[in-house]
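Example record for the data management plan.
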Amino acid sequence: SANICAENIDKFNTKWSNTTESTLVTLTCTGEYTGNVSRNCSSGGKWEEPNYSNCIKSANPCAENIDEFNTNWSNTAENTLVTLTCTGDYTGNVSRYCSSGGKWKEPNYSNCISKVIQLIKEQTVKLVPGVGDYDIVTIILIDLENVTRDNSELRSGDLLTSSSILNDIAKYVTDHKEKLSVDQLEIFASLCNNLLDERNRETWEDLIDGESGGVTSLVNAVTDFNDAFNNVIDSNFSLIAVKENVVMEVGKASSDEITVPDRLATSDSWISDSRTEIKLKLKNNIMVA
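Corresponding structural encoding:
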């Protein structure tokens, strides 16, 4: 069998992975250097000295920085995208761009997902008729509501994944309305309220700037979930869940028209500052866009 050069970290802290003999490895220079560095794994599985002749120090590097989630960004050459593994109880990776002039852009945490939320997402595969003899919809909603309540550590990946979970549930109950229960509306509204909390305002705005669609996915989930309820509830009755950042009303509406957000009812919430407004009109006792 071929000999292997063992994993090695050189004097400049460049990490060289296990490599088959007689192989030239080329890596991007790290830190505030641009260019690339190469190293040969010679026959017999012995590393030669790395060649740093093409590594040039950047004129305007981004200085070392620790962001709000305690991720440490080392000195980095300008015009460089850095990708790191998410730290703590998170899966995925986070990236950040060092722009020209040596200025850091905001880090992109859209691929960082809490391991707990990821596990809840995996539970949505059980949203299949006949799987289990318990109310999986309610369990998923309760678990996610508990994780997101008063949580100041939610990354953008958590907001996107939570919205995806709610969309999965909304689609499921649309096709299986027998799985709907009154208490789910209250939990669903509380969950949406958690995600739209003031503490998550900048994170949502970063998602919008990053062209990920922002809060659109969450709005779609609320719409579909409401529609499922409206299709089964007696139109002479109504159910209302009122939270600081969201109001969900199904069945017979209390007004001929509802404007979302209600800027009077949510005056202390960042949602009231939103430039987006939806008007729902009453048609046959059902609110429609």
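Summary line stored alongside the record: The mean pLDDT is 84.
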